[in-house]
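Batch job 17 of 40 flagged for manual review because the log was empty.
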Amino acid sequence: MIMGGFFSKLSKKERAGLMVAGFIVMAVFVDRLVISPISAKLQRISREITLSEKKLSHDLRNIHSKEFIESEYKKYKDFVKKSPVSDEENVSNMLAEIEGLARTAGVNLVDIKPQVSKQFDFYKEYAAEVTIEGQMEQIIVFLHKLGSAQLLRAVKVRLGLKQKDSSVVKAFMLVTNISM
């Protein structure tokens, strides 16, 4: 009744304004208590769905490349077997491999100096400074053949002519080998 008396004293314009204000207050109240929490939850769920879809896409790509990964694993699994031989035997095998590659490539092996091996987390790296002489084609063949069964690779290579008028190239290189 108090409200009825209050409304009866107001003019039509004031009643309409009060109704609009009341409607706005109710709308804000409903927005803050109902709509905003639901909207925030939906946005969070949407982000989680997007993240899950990305993870699923990545996992599906891995599943589809399973055969490729298995074939690559089979190709390299012989290289990752733990080496039961000593450091000296590993260095000796590496030097023998380098000498054999130099012979088959037709280059002259001028000097070969083994370096101190370095221990890393789960593998050991052996290195040797190698000096060879030969025609450029022969040196390229030698560098190409370094990717042998022992996983040799040339980390540093420096080329120079042996003499100014000669076509013989002298190559200094650091060759490394990795053993598990």
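Reviewer: the log was empty due to a logging misconfiguration, but the result itself is present. Residues 2-64 form one domain. Unflagging and moving on to job 18.
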